[in-house]
Write a structure and sequence with these properties.
With 241 residues, this protein is of the alpha/beta class. The protein is 50% helix and 17% strand. The protein has 11 helices and 8 strands. The chain has an 8-stranded parallel beta barrel, surrounded by 8 helices. Helix 4 links the parallel strand 3 and strand 4. Helix 10 crosses helix 11. The protein is globular and about 45 Å long. It starts with a strand and ends with a helix. The mean pLDDT is 96. The structure holds pyridoxine-5'-phosphate. The site of pyridoxine-5'-phosphate has 19 residues, from strand 8 and helix 10. Pyridoxine-5'-phosphate (PXP) binds next to strand 8 and helix 10.
Length: 241
């Protein structure tokens, strides 16, 4: 089955709105575990706008599931990852002004730097994925730096409608074929929701999706466990197709 990583950043976004303790991030992670998620994803941003350093350490203590740490290749964050040792990290680009991660990482443009970061993570037993746009050169560059997987940026697909959405889906399918050919595991994430997940989930070879905003937004109406289970039901449907 395609695995589900639940990105719980926006539980922390709500908490940080009052700089208090609620909603409790650990409780949210535990509910995702109980609901059947396969992984907990958190993005420790350089500006610490939602997830805080203490969250990462606390989650590492209590999580039964794998932790996927999304992070920029910035020394300050690399040092934290080396200490915490999440199961996997996902290298993302980051700019201070953006509302959320806007584009894929330019792996091809910084091969030697990212090769070094990947090697440092591997030394600590941490797997590495790269968050990239569906562009063949970025898939190949990710293989070249020694990444264990790539995560396709599905934001443009999610934001598009009609024939534009079909084109974006084709781009994802074509690059997934490249990843399959060079035997690089691939994931998908950004903007995925109960409305647009199924066509992406049907791409042959897809291993994992990471979903945050839609699950946390749905949870306001139907609860966190229900929101996780809705997504799992879609992934299970693909399994039985
Ligand atoms: N994957 C990556 C690499 C991301 O940066 C994000 C957003 O933090 C997500 C997945 C989840 O995106 P969304 O919140 O739109 O589901």
């Amino acid at each position: 089955m395609i695995e589900l990583g639940v990105n719980i950043d926006h539980v922390a976004t709500l908490r940080e709105a009052r700089k208090g303790k609620a909603p409790d991030l650990i409780a949210a992670a535990k509910l995702c575990e109980l609901a059947g998620a396969h992984q907990i994803t958190v993005h420790l941003r350089v500006d610490r706008r939602h997830i805080q350093d203490a969250d990462i350490y606390a989650l590492k203590q209590v999580l039964l599931l794998r932790m996927n740490l999304e992070m920029a290749a910035e020394e300050e964050i690399i040092l934290i990852a080396e200490e915490v040792r999440p199961y996997t990290i996902c290298l993302v680009p980051e700019t201070r002004e953006e509302v959320t991660t806007e584009g894929g990482l330019d792996v091809a443009g910084q091969i030697s730097k990212l090769k070094e970061v990947t090697a440092r993570m591997h030394e600590k037993g941490i797997l590495v994925s790269t968050f990239i746009d569906p562009v063949a050169a970025q898939v190949e560059a990710s293989k070249a730096i020694g990444a264990d997987a790539i995560e396709f940026h599905t934001g443009p697909y999610a934001a598009a409608t009609g024939s534009e959405a079909c084109k974006e889906l084709e781009r994802l399918q074509e690059c997934a074929a490249v990843a399959n050919e060079i035997e690089l595991n691939f994931h998908a994430g950004h903007g995925l929701s109960i409305r647009n997940l199924l066509p992406v989930a049907r791409i042959p070879g897809l291993r994992e999706v990471n979903i945050g905003h839609d699950i946390i937004a749905r949870s306001i109406f139907i609860g966190l466990e229900g929101a996780v289970q809705e997504i799992l039901a879609i992934l299970e449907k693909v399994e039985t197709d």
